[in-house]
Amino acid sequence: MRAAPISxxxxxxxxxxxxxxxxxxxxxxxxxxxxxxxxxxxLAARLVEELRLRGRPAVHVxxxxxxxxxSLRFEFGREDPDxxxxxxxxxxxxxxxxxxxxxxxxxxxxxxxLWDPAADRAYRAEHxxxxxxxxxxxxxxxxxxxxxxxxxxxxLSMSPAALARRTEDELAWTLPAYRRYAEExxxxxxxxxxxxxxxxxHPALVED
Length: 208
What we know:
It comes from Actinospica acidithermotolerans. GO terms for molecular function: kinase activity. This is Uridine kinase. By secondary structure, the chain is of the alpha/beta class. The protein has a single domain (2-201), classed as Rossmann fold. It contains eight helices and eleven strands. It has a seven-stranded mixed β-sheet with strand order 1-11-10-9-2-8-3. Strand 10 (193-196) and strand 11 form a beta hairpin. The longest helix is centred in the first third of the chain and has 14 residues, at 40-53. It is globular, with a radius of gyration of 17 Å. The termini are close together.
C-alpha cells in the first residue's frame, strides 16, 4: 500500500469533487468511515460545509446518534469488543430514518439523530427535508460491509500502533473490534477514497 501526503484542505476539496461528480439530480449518501481517533466527524462536518458552499444541500449524520438502547448494547457486558463491532449500531434505524428517505422514491425527510446514548433515550430531533440533489454525509465506525448502501465511501485508517496510542485508555477494550474490522472487511480496498491518518493533521491518500 502506497500513501502520498495530502493537505487536509486538498483532501477536503478532492472529496467534495468526488461527490459533485456523481449524478446531481438525485439525493446521495456519502460515508466517512473511521475509528474516532481518525476524526471522521471533523471531515464529515467540513465536507457538509464545503458542499453547501458549492450549492448542494447537505446533512451531517453521526452513527453514534443511532446506537441501540443500553439494555441491548450491554446485555452481555459493557466491554465486549465483538458485540461493540456487530451489535451496538442500530443499522435498521439508519436505513429507516436516513437512507430510505433519500432513495429515489423516498420522502426526503431525514432524521439526523435518533438516540442519545448518554441519557439512553430518544432525542427530540426534527426531521430535515432534503431536496433532490441533496447529500447525506454519514460518519462513524464499521460502516463498510454493514449492509448500508452508499454512493461514495471515504475510509480513514490508522496503523494499529497509532490507533492504540491515540485511543483513550478507557476505550482500549474497543481496539480488538477495529482490528477485526480491518482484517475481515479490508475497508481500505473497498473505499472509493482511502486515507491514512496516523496523524489526522497530516493525512496521506492511499494509492493503488
